[in-house]
Amino acid sequence: WNVMALEGKRKEARGARKIKIDLEVEEGSFEGSVGSGGEGSEGGSTSTDGSDPSSRVKHHHHHHHHHSSAYPSLEARIHASTLATCNFKDLPPEQPHICLGPEKIDPEWEDLLETTGCNIFKVPFDESEDKKCLELLSDVSGWKEVKPMKQEYDERTVKFKVKFNVDERLRAIVKVPQKLFPYEAMSEVGSYYADRVMQVNRVPPTAWVHVPVEVFEHSAKQYGDSIKLIPQFANESKVHDYYEWIMKDFINYNRKKGLTLSDDPAYPDKEVVGVSIQLFVADVRPLLSSDLAIPWVPHNDNWQLHLNPEHPFEPKHTIGFIRQAELSMYDYVLGSVDRSPNKNNFVVGACRHHHTVSKCGSGPRHPGPPSFLTLDNGVFGAKKVPKKNFFFRVDVHVR
H helices of 56-183, where? Predict the structure, then answer.
């Protein structure tokens, strides 16, 4: 795929905010340098016959999923750099290492994939496994419990957690169109499909589904009294409790905007609303709470300087910065403006509090080497140019 960030196109991309992506690999022949490299040969290049590395060679291919790179993949780097099997032993938290999770999935959880079709332990995701999981997530009749999630200062939106009849251990998160974030649910689904098209495979399976409005009204009534609103947000919405907030900013907002439907054949005589539902993955934590954290100073974007070779960083941070480059390009293509090292930036495994089990959560652990997850993609296709994104500021950094 080719992003319109090439010389001569950058200005057009900025001005029109239309980024053109060519996802079709033409069959036939093409020219290019063939790279051969690894951890010890960054960008080393050689031709197929061992001749001059700068020579140009022709290749022929007849498929659309061809990958060739002179650089080791992000996963390969993680595997090669995993230096310690921590298992919550009393290791000094300042010791530079990347911890392996358990060798195998916890025996109490290993049947979950078979019973549900959803793999909460495998990242990057396998697109071939998505279909069965999405079917399960989308079947509202199979939802056992829909429970509101509490507000946080950095997570203020209306959202719900779902349990399933087939297996109560499986969880999913539902996001909804609401007054302050009307496109959040659609953005989550769009980001999932973009992730699969670009073959990044780091967004959990995410589906768009119609749900009867009464499901959310009942949930808010049943659990609303136990959920406290943050006073600042309650004042901004001019509401007094959780149920009033759900009705005003979510349900009645959708009714007012004509976003609820009454003609869905799956739910005759019921009012429904479109929402997103996304698989809840095991052992997730913020980037900065993991072994893969990068140096970061609050309210400062200077970390982006390290994406420029003129500003080197310590070798132990290589994987973290490569991931930030991957995320920056992903957000550049999608027009996402809501991410930084300390926000919407996640890892599976690699808990840095190995000496304190409670700080790593009580759920099942991610097996083997850690990996990265792309969550909270609620600002897909924003009209506002993501000026903090490295790829929009690349001319500044190069200069």
Answer: 74-81, 112-116, 130-138
Helix (H) or strand (E) holding 192: helix 184-197
Q: Which residues contact 330 (CB under 8 A, 6 or more apart)?
A: 194, 195, 198, 200, 336, 374
Residues 363-382 pLDDT 10s:
898 998 899 999 998 877 76
Which alpha helices (H) appear in 276-360, and where do they start and end? 318-334
pLDDT tens digits, 134-188:
999 999 999 999 999 876 656 668 899 999 999 999 999 999 999 888 999 999 9
Q: Which two tokens stand for residue 316?
A: 């132990």
CA 170 to chain centre: 19
Q: How confident is the model at residue 394 (pLDDT cuts 50, 70, 90)?
A: low
Distances (CA, A) of 73 to 23, 67, 346: 20, 11, 18
Q: What is the pTM of this model?
A: 0.77
**Cα separation, 372 vs 285, whole angstroms:** 10
CB 367 within 8 A of CB 104: yes
Q: Is the N-terminal amide bond of 386 cis, ω within 30° of 0?
A: no
Whole-angstrom distance, CA of residue 141 vs CA of residue 211: 10
In this predicted structure, the answer to whether residue 385 has a pLDDT above a threshold of 70 is: no
Q: What is d(CA 128, CA 136) in angstroms, rounded to the nearest whole number?
A: 15
As a whole number of angstroms, the distance between CA 299 and CA 327 comes to 19
- Residue 284's DSSP bridge partners are 348
Cβ atoms of 99 and 86 within 8 Å: the answer is yes
CA distance 247 to 213: 10
C-beta of residue 177 within 8 angstroms of C-beta of residue 185: yes
Label residue 84 exposed, middle or buried (CB < 10 Å: 0-12, 13-18, 19+): middle
275 touches 182 (CB < 8 A) = no
Q: DSSP letter at 128?
A: G
Quick one: how far is CA 186 from the chain centroid? 15
Chain-centre distance for alpha carbon 18: 22
CB 155 within 8 A of CB 224: no
Contact 221, 243 (CB under 8 A): yes
